Amino acid sequence: MTGSGVEEPAWKAEGTVREVEGTVREVEGRGGARWALVSVALGVFCIQLDSFALNLALSHIKAELDVSTGQLQWVVSAYLLSCGTLMLGAGRMSDLFGRRRLLIVGLTLFGLASLWCALAPSLPVLVTARMVQGAGGALIMPAGLALLTNVFPPAVRGRAMGRALGIGGLATACGPFVGGALTDMVSWRAVFWLNVPLGVVAALCARRAQESRDTTASGHIDWPGLATGSAALAALAVVIDRGPVWGWVSPAGVGTLCLAALAPAAFVRIELRTAEPLIAPALFRNGAFVALTAAGAVANAATVVFLFVVPLSLQGGWRLTPLVAGVAFLGPAVAMAAGGPFAGRVTGARAVPVMAMSLGAAAVVLLGAALISGLPPYLVAVTGGGAALGVGNALTLTATQGVIRPERAGEASGLTKTVITVAAGLGVVATGPAVDTGGTATAGGNGPLAVAGAGCLAACLLLALWGWVRRGPRARRPGEPVPSAATKGGVR
Questions:
Q1: Fewer Cβ in 10 A, N or C end of the chain?
Q2: Domain check: are 56 and 142 in the same one?
Q3: What is the pLDDT of residues 287-302, one digit of tens each?
Q4: Handedness of CA 140, 142, 143, 145 (dihedral sign)
Q5: How confident is the model at residue 116 (pLDDT cuts 50, 70, 90)?
């Protein structure tokens, strides 16, 4: 009852209570939200630093451990494939058991694995340590993004994610120079040593963050779905890499192909029959989420191929030392790092990812087709491609979080990161042999870059076509409530 004796409508009273409760939570958790932002930013910083600094050290790893480029690519792809395989369950587990808790576990595991990498005496040990490092990264990204989605109010959520990606992007900018300098002056192992203290600081910051979890769930884990989903991803990775070596009609090749075909079917069957599935089937009916994730997968694969091939080409084809190559790659890295803050301000704008990916694809195609000669024009094209791909990748992470329900943020983030990371890992696996046959021997064209750029262009066309045909709902404004599942015909 109100003071005038007129009963207040139930929906209005409920909305007022929720608004007050939200304001209270925002005031009480503001400090915790800041610590969450710092922790996630440092986690992304570690991952980006590891990727960018390591790429400039690959040639020294190859020489010291006496391996071919085809074997060397496993230093990169082992991390990506491990990370992508485990993210499928990591995202949902963070929803169930606590996003802050899983973030701390991921940061700790990533730091310990970095120490293991720094001490690795051989390539098999290094690759194994990289797989463990990938497991830590599998927890950091989906748990961290889901934590930010839930501790920040909708009005500033996109900006918070953009800042985290932007701060992490500083590692993108300084990574090549740091990696080249450390490799030249100390050792490639020093690149991994840097992650250890950073991981400790990030974990300590995460302990002061506000915990969040999906309070609508029972806490049940879909173990059959997790097992079959992970098996499907692992089989896919193995069949891409080992199939040509074993032979497609060999017992090992046929067995792996069967597993790669049967495991996904079993996973879908389990998810459709489980009361609390690992990945809600209705998520795949969210057209915006599916389109952005698919486009992001292609863009991320192109980006990883770009990051794998260009540094090796600078040192191989252009005959630059790791330190000089790091300085030369600084411009493209800074341009790519700027994508995070920009993406945080344009979340939901469908034309932006299409334009960004189109520009990036055009630059990568030109580089791969050897249509650019001379080092200065080459670096200009690399910088333009890096900037466009950086925006496209950051938009995938922020925009997909804007079209789902916050309580299932970890599940959606885990699925998105799984798809784009596995796509990137498979891209590197396919790139290794091609690069080993001469991609780094010439300053000009490279087949993997041309293929990556063409795929990126195709994804742009499909994303633009989907947006034109579907004419989906307009992007939500900051603070606007998410439509219910009943109004959208499925879980978002």
A1: N
A2: yes
A3: 888 888 888 888 778 7
A4: positive
A5: very high
d(CA 467, CA 349): 11
In a domain, 23, yes or no: no
Other beta carbons within 10 Å of 162: 24
In a domain, 11, yes or no: no
239-281 pLDDT, tens digit each: 766 666 677 788 888 888 888 889 889 998 998 888 888 888 8
The answer to whether 33 touches 154, Cβ cutoff 8 Å, is no
| 3-class SS of residue 444 | coil
Whole-number Cα distances in Å, 1 to 5, 74, 175, 272: 6, 68, 62, 46
Residues 6+ apart with CB under 8 A from 301: 420, 423, 424, 426, 427, 452, 455
Considering the domain architecture, whether residues 271 and 284 belong to the same structural domain is answered as no
Q: What is residue 278's three-state secondary structure?
A: coil
The whole-angstrom separation of Cα 95 and Cα 72 is 36
Q: Who's near 26: CB < 8 A, 6+ residues apart?
A: 153
Domain containing 121: what range?
28-210+278-472
One-letter amino acid at 430 equals A
Amino acid identity of residue 269, one-letter, is R
Whose structure tokens read 């341009």? Answer: 335
- Chain segment 344-374, per-residue pLDDT in tens: 666 555 565 666 666 666 666 666 555 667 7
Is there a single domain that holds both residue 260 and residue 407? no
Tell me: do 196 and 306 sit in the same domain: yes
- 310's tokens: 């260009």
C-alpha 357/C-alpha 459 separation (Å) is: 8
Examine the domain organization and report whether 147 and 229 are in the same domain. Answer: no
Give the HSE-up count for residue 481: Cα atoms under 13 Å, Cβ half-sphere. 8
